[in-house]
Specification:
about 325 residues, alpha+beta, Fructose-1,6-Bisphosphatase, Chain A, domain 1, D-Maltodextrin-Binding Protein, domain 2, 2 domains, five-stranded mixed sheet, 15 strands, globular, binds 1,6-di-O-phosphono-alpha-D-fructofuranose, magnesium
């Protein structure tokens, strides 16, 4: 049995990067405990609501953000953070070497139904003598030095890569540490499972409608095989399923708001998941380009996402 700290000692040469990963994942263990208490802890509900004691309740995504922000800003290895819950980046230590972008609680609408949620993170190395600015974060995803997520499901799992493949760890709740449970995860290039929010079908491009129609037609259609569909409504859960048993995940552009290129965020959803998928032998694209090649224009930028089994991503893009 290999613990996360033992694994990091052999996988990551930089002590500062080890520290960033340990601080991030240790805080996720604390978030996991907060989530497990659920409404017993009196912390469920909308920010601004009052609990039975008349105290203001905070949403768990706000609580998770504050926990990660507090822990990371206190780490000397951190130069700055960017979060889904923060309008602007937050500079930390000018001497710090690492930038981290995160979604503290992806899929947070699943909280109210006691379903899967997760924390997603993306780490870049960037040094400089001035305090960090947003421009420091605007690097393509191929520059990430580490990326991953912690999934809060029936068990709490950490999945990450530092560019040497994808490894999965399971939280040993008694010991309070992550233990390596699956090494060098690979995604089969072929699949018969897809994930897309079908309720948006009428808003997709013609090409996307044709592609999904062909999946749904199954054995009787041009694909000649039946497809199964799954939708967790938390990207972290859908990507975890793909890493475990294959599949394709799509959040396409749609014409509900034609000026928005997609729903998902480049810096703390598409890029880290794109790096994981590529490290597992899969692919991650928008409708037209490799996600990790995109030059970001803002920390909260949105993109269309097509990721998963390599041959199925190619097939989807060929429409
Ligand atoms: P929230 O974190 O706001 O719940 O959004 C989750 C998410 O960005 C992503 O994780 C899901 O894949 C997607 O939204 C689900 O979107 P739908 O509302 O279309 O199901």
């Amino acid at each position: 049995m290999q613990s996360l700290s033992q694994f990091l000692a052999s996988d990551v040469s930089s002590a500062s990067l080890q520290e960033v990963l340990l601080v991030t994942t240790q805080t996720c263990i604390e978030i996991s405990s907060a989530l497990k208490k659920g409404s017993l802890a009196g912390i469920l509900g909308m920010a601004g609501n009052e609990n039975v004691q008349g105290e203001e309740q905070k949403k768990l995504d706000v609580i998770s953000n504050n926990m990660l922000k507090g822990a990371l800003l206190a780490s000397p290895a951190i130069r700055a953070i960017a979060s889904e819950e923060e309008d602007d980046i937050v500079p930390a230590n000018t001497d710090g070497e690492y930038l981290i972008a995160f979604d503290p609680l992806d899929g947070s609408s699943n909280i109210d139904i006691n379903s899967m949620v997760g924390t997603i993170f993306s780490i870049y190395r960037q040094v400089g003598s001035e305090p960090a600015t947003e421009a420091d974060f605007l690097q393509p995803g191929k520059n990430q030095v580490a990326a991953g997520y912690v999934l809060y499901g029936p068990s709490t799992m950490l999945v990450f890569t530092t560019g040497h493949g994808v490894n999965m760890f399971t939280l040993d709740v008694e010991q309070g540490e992550f233990i390596l449970t699956r090494e060098n995860v690979k995604v089969d290039p072929e699949t018969q499972e897809f994930a897309i929010n079908m309720s948006n079908q009428r808003f997709w491009s013609d090409a996307m409608q044709n592609y999904v129609n062909d999946l749904v037609a199954g054995k009787d259609g041009s694909r000649g095989k039946n497809f199964n569909m799954r939708w967790v409504a938390a990207m972290v859960g859908d990507v975890h399923r793909i890493l475990c048993r294959g599949g394709i995940f799509i959040y396409p552009w749609d014409k509900k708001d034609p000026n928005k290129p997609g729903k998902l965020r480049l810096m703390y959803e598409a890029n880290p998941m794109g790096m994981l998928l590529e490290q597992a032998g899969g692919k991650a694209f928008t409708h037209t380009e490799r996600i990790l090649d995109i030059q970001p224009e803002g920390i909260h930028q949105r993109v269309a996402v097509v990721l998963g089994a390599a041959n199925e991503v190619d097939k989807c893009l060929s429409y």
